[in-house]
């Protein structure tokens, strides 16, 4: 005996852009679902209210829909989604005013028009937020970019100071003490580059890219650049002195361990030997570097007094000449106090 063709129970709900149909059939096999001339055709073998049979129905929609229905089979039902051609609220599902007997509202998904509008706005806000996050980059992407940026910065600084350290060491072994007196002329360009680039460290700390405290970074930046650009850079008489060698050598020795340590930290690596060197070498080199900087300032005082560079006379009626060496002496006091506090 042939299976009797029956109509299943169908439940529907809508949103502004789509229709939802739930067909109460279990164990569905080979469903035939299509839309032609704005009519939904459904036919499937399954277990419904009348047992295991072939069930089918046809629905002519109230307004135009897209002819590509999407369906999903579950063990107990068939869920069909149909897209409206125009986003709007329908007063009913079918073109005929009288509701078919097998059709009923799906109260599990039912919303009235105002609730549906609120849901639509929420989805739109969620979509816009998602687009905004994608344009800004996900937190993981931003973290990766930050780590990559910091790794490259520390790598460049490491290469720069390594170049200075290696060249000064080689020149010392070849030329001996003679290499002391032309250090500035052979190493100044690279030291200028590294020290100007170190401004980035203070900026990183100030804007929160790194967790380093801002003041120590700023003090080191200003202190070194004062020695490099003012004491050495503006006075040719200072550029031929041996103290330049010791200042540059202590700076570069500290940095060839500090920057690789930061590089590995960017990629979450901990090399115990490097960590030990970074914090151990610094102990003797830091005071030696401060001493070399202080000696360079002391040696520059008579040079600035003799040349009168950066000295000035206060306006009438005071007319007192203020020598730059006065500020250098204050700088020495500040250098001692700041280094002692650190």
UniProtKB/TrEMBL annotation:
A Pfam match: PTPLA
Reaction(s) catalysed by this chain's protein: (3R)-hydroxyhexadecanoyl-CoA = (2E)-hexadecenoyl-CoA + H2O; a very-long-chain (3R)-3-hydroxyacyl-CoA = a very-long-chain (2E)-enoyl-CoA + H2O
Oxidoreductase recorded as keyword: no
Membrane topology value: Multi-pass membrane protein
Enzyme class: lyase
GO process annotations (BP): fatty acid biosynthetic process; small GTPase-mediated signal transduction
Gene Ontology terms, MF aspect: very-long-chain (3R)-3-hydroxyacyl-CoA dehydratase activity
Classification via SUPFAM superfamilies: HSP20-like chaperones (SSF49764)
Gene3D superfamilies: 2.60.40.790
TM region(s), chain numbering: 150-170, 241-261, 281-302, 322-338
Location of the protein in the cell: Endoplasmic reticulum membrane
GO CC entries: endoplasmic reticulum membrane
Sequence ranges assigned to domain CS in this UniProt record: 5-94
Superkingdom of the organism of origin: Eukaryota
Classification via InterPro entries: CS_dom, HSP20-like_chaperone, Tyr_Pase-like_PTPLA
Enzyme Commission number(s) from the entry: 4.2.1.134
Keywords: Coiled coil, Endoplasmic reticulum, Fatty acid biosynthesis, Fatty acid metabolism, Lipid biosynthesis, Lipid metabolism, Lyase, Membrane, Phosphoprotein, Transmembrane, Transmembrane helix
Pathway assigned in UniProt: Lipid metabolism; fatty acid biosynthesis
Principal location listed in the UniProt entry: endoplasmic reticulum
Family: Belongs to the very long-chain fatty acids dehydratase HACD family.
Biological function: Catalyzes the third of the four reactions of the long-chain fatty acids elongation cycle. This endoplasmic reticulum-bound enzymatic process, allows the addition of two carbons to the chain of long- and very long-chain fatty acids/VLCFAs per cycle. This enzyme catalyzes the dehydration of the 3-hydroxyacyl-CoA intermediate into trans-2,3-enoyl-CoA, within each cycle of fatty acid elongation. Thereby, it participates to the production of VLCFAs of different chain lengths that are involved in multiple biological processes as precursors of membrane lipids and lipid mediators.
Protein name (record): Very-long-chain (3R)-3-hydroxyacyl-CoA dehydratase
């Amino acid at each position: 005996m042939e299976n009797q063709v029956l109509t299943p129970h169908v439940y529907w709900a809508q949103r502004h852009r789509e229709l939802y149909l739930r067909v109460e059939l279990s164990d569905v096999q080979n469903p035939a679902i299509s839309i032609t001339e704005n009519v939904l055709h459904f036919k499937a073998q399954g277990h419904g209210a009348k047992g295991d049979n072939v069930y089918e129905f046809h629905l002519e929609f109230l307004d135009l829909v897209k002819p590509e229905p999407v369906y999903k089979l579950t063990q107990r039902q068939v869920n069909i989604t149909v897209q409206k051609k125009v986003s709007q609220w329908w007063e009913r599902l079918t073109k005929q005013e009288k509701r078919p007997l097998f059709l009923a509202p799906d109260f599990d998904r039912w919303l009235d028009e105002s609730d549906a509008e609120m849901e639509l706005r929420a989805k739109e806000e969620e979509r816009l937020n998602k687009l905004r996050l994608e344009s800004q980059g996900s937190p993981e992407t931003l973290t990766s970019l930050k780590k990559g940026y910091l790794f490259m910065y520390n790598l460049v600084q490491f290469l720069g100071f390594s170049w200075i350290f290696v060249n000064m060491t080689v020149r010392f072994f070849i030329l001996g003490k003679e290499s002391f007196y032309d250090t500035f002329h052979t190493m100044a360009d690279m030291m200028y580059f590294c020290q100007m680039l170190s401004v980035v460290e203070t900026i990183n700390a100030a804007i929160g890219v790194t967790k380093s405290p801002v003041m120590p970074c700023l003090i080191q930046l200003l202190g070194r650049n004062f020695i490099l650009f003012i004491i050495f850079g503006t006075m040719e008489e200072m550029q031929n002195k041996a103290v330049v060698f010791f200042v540059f050598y202590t700076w570069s020795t500290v940095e060839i361990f500090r920057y690789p340590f930061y590089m590995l930290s960017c990629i979450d690596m901990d090399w115990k030997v490097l960590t030990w060197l970074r914090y151990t070498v610094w102990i003797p080199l830091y005071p030696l570097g401060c001493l070399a900087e202080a000696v360079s300032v002391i040696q520059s005082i008579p040079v600035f007094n003799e040349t009168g560079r950066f000295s000035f006379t206060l306006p009438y009626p005071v007319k007192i000449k203020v020598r730059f060496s006065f500020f250098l002496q204050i700088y020495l006091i500040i250098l001692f106090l700041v280094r002692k506090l650190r």
